[in-house]
Design the sequence.
């Protein structure tokens, strides 16, 4: 469960990135954050994993008030992160990229193999575990990024413009993959994107504009082939 | 877990490439200068003590066929006298033959019996010697005390230490700055990756530890390299000295450290190297790596 109560984010120059944001995202829900560049999507996500601070309000992640945390590692262990530019380690192959975080957390090699193979299976890259990541296509690289995010089985998954560098076909495949992961693994997901086709997935959509929530749809009321055009 | 941190350090070293060589070269030069300074300091101290005697020690040569007991009794009356060592003429003859690498017949021994006297402080030596002279003892043939030579040697030793310390500090600062900058460069190059690790809940220890280990590695390798340079230098100069002296006159052999002293010098170099480079790495991570 993620809850934001009247969250504001102001910069030193007086500009506001977020204005009075209140959101409640129940456990296991898949939510898309949409809006144009500079709307505050990335800032909101960064606040959730404490890469950014907020000026006022209250943020609860799994009932923990994150403004009171001094050591963020416990919070971050509960969150899987996916980035637009993948941020894969170029000197490691697919398997080792996904395994990296598990090894850093002290998992045994047996557990590492079991979990990494499971994650690569979910994203459909089991046959490419030995490939170096620079030899992969953009879509495949993002799948490695997704596998890395889910390999520790975190309850929350945050994705910041995960299809920003992908063509429309691959973008749809990635969104479809997110939907499958959400349904299979029951992870709470927040995906920031400006891709208007996410309405086809019949999931919750929160629109931000100028740092404010301008629309919050109820997934059950969406038509099958969305009328929402952003 | 520790092995993983070690593996990360190895990766960091591999990625630093030629910078490793530069850092190790400079740190090695620093430690070599420091090592030479230590060696000279130890050697001059030994030379002063073993060959010329220290500032707190003087030697009394006894007249022929005089038993030393009476003089020993007199010397014990001085509270400033700390130690009295009797050196019989036979022992002195044997030592002289050893030091000068001679094999002279004992019948040629015309050395006197002697007493090595050590006082509590250099300032008492002259006092005790004056007292002995003024007592006009018939037992004493000659008193040998060479504080000026010892003082000169000590002055040279102190100057060398000062010079060596100055050069070491300069090179040390250079090493510190270069190591700091290298670690900073590596941090900059891997900023995204390190941020990612931090965002994924990896502990600070796992992120920062490899950089500090990298520094420790630089220190160890540099100390070993400096030790090798010192050993080569010692061996070469000792060989040249022996060649020059045709294998004789080993009086100045004390100028070179013995294996025990050399081991201690290498341990000191290792400690200094590791402390220096790991401290600069740690400082770089504290200043530049905000996770």
Sequence:
């Amino acid at each position: 469960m993620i809850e934001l109560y009247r969250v504001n984010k102001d910069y030193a120059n007086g500009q506001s990135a977020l204005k009075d944001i209140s959101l409640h995202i129940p456990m296991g829900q898949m939510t898309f954050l949409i809006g144009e560049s500079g709307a505050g999507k990335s800032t909101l996500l960064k606040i959730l994993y404490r890469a950014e601070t907020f000026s006022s309000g209250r943020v609860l992640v799994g009932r923990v008030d994150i403004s009171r945390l001094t050591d963020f590692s416990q919070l971050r262990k509960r969150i899987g992160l996916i980035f637009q530019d993948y941020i894969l380690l170029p000197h490691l192959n697919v398997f080792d990229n996904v395994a990296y975080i598990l090894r850093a957390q002290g998992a045994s090699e047996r557990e590492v193999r079991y979990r990494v193979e499971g994650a690569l299976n979910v994203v459909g890259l089991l046959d490419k575990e030995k490939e170096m990541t620079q030899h992969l296509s953009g879509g495949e690289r993002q799948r490695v990024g997704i596998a890395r995010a889910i390999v520790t089985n975190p309850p929350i998954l945050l994705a910041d413009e995960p299809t920003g560098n992908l063509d429309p076909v691959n973008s749809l495949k990635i969104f479809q993959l997110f939907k499958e992961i959400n349904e299979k693994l029951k992870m709470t997901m927040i995906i920031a994107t400006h891709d208007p086709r996410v309405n086809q997935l019949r999931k919750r959509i929160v629109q931000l504009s100028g740092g404010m929530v301008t629309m919050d749809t109820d997934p059950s009321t969406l038509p099958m082939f969305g009328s929402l055009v952003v | 877990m520790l092995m993983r941190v070690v593996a990360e350090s190895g990766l960091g070293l591999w990625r630093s490439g030629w910078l490793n060589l530069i850092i190790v070269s400079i740190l090695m030069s620093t430690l070599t200068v420091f090592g030479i300074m230590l060696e000279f300091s130890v050697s001059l101290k030994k030379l002063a003590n073993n060959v010329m005697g220290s500032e707190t020690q003087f030697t009394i040569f006894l007249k022929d066929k005089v038993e030393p007991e009476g003089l020993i009794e007199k010397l014990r009356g001085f509270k400033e006298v700390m130690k009295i060592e009797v050196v019989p003429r036979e022992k002195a003859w044997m030592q002289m033959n050893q030091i000068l690498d001679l094999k002279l017949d004992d019948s040629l021994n015309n050395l006197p019996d002697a007493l090595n006297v050590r006082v509590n402080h250099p300032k008492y030596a002259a006092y005790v010697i004056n007292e002995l002279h003024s007592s006009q003892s018939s037992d004493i043939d000659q008193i040998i005390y060479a504080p000026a030579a010892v003082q000169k040697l000590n002055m040279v030793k102190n100057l060398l230490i000062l010079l060596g310390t100055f050069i070491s500090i300069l090179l040390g600062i250079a090493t510190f700055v270069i190591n700091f900058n290298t670690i900073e460069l590596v941090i900059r190059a891997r900023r995204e990756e390190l941020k990612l690790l931090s965002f994924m809940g990896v502990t600070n220890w796992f992120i920062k530890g490899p950089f500090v280990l990298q520094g420790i590695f630089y220190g160890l390798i540099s100390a070993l390299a400096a030790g090798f340079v010192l050993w080569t230098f010692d061996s070469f100069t000792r060989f040249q000295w022996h060649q020059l002296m045709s294998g004789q006159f080993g009086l100045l052999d004390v100028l070179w450290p013995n294996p025990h002293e050399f081991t201690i010098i290498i341990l000191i170099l290792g400690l200094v190297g590791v402390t220096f480079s790991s401290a600069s790495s740690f400082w770089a991570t504290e200043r530049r790596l905000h996770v």
